[in-house]
Amino acid sequence: MRRQSVRAPIIRYTELEARGLVEALYEGDDLLRLLQERGFICVEGNVRSAPFRLMLELEQKGIEYQMKSFEHDDFHPNPHSEFSLPYFIDDRSTNEEGFRVAREIKPPRLIPRNPFEITFSEASEMAPFLTKDNRNGVLQMIRTYGFVGTDELSYRLIHHLNLQKVEFMMRSYVDGKNVSYEFQLQSFSDDREDAD
After folding, report:
1. pLDDT class for 160, splitting at 50, 70, 90?
2. pTM
């Protein structure tokens, strides 16, 4: 995914964890305030409920964010979403080289992986509409390419991915008064930041 703007000092997951600020939050919590204070929150429950309302609030306020939707795992008995602001760094897990890296969303089970096995650059050359104002066909595009860009927060896409129990990542971008979104599955290879 392309870079978001950074408007605040960097905050790391391990710093929040040391201060006891990474507990799961729920429907009744002031999610927007906590996200703005911490730069990161984890919200228990399906994306169709509290997390989606938070996404709408963030859109109304023109706040850039990243959201990852996860199914249940060893630590979370329920589906959950992680929201972060552009200046947040997820450094909680360790890779083979000993560096801490962000948790990755799992490849989708029911939605086919990118049949072309291509990068963003190759996909956008074949289908330049991938990052345009897509309102229709977003399900087909994410099924085919593992990626779709849209200028509208697609409740239908989020609802479908949730019903299929598909983990995904979404980022919002604010340019003046315009807000755009990019949805991405783990199977998609985004090489745009590599070119920077």
Report:
1. confident
2. 0.72
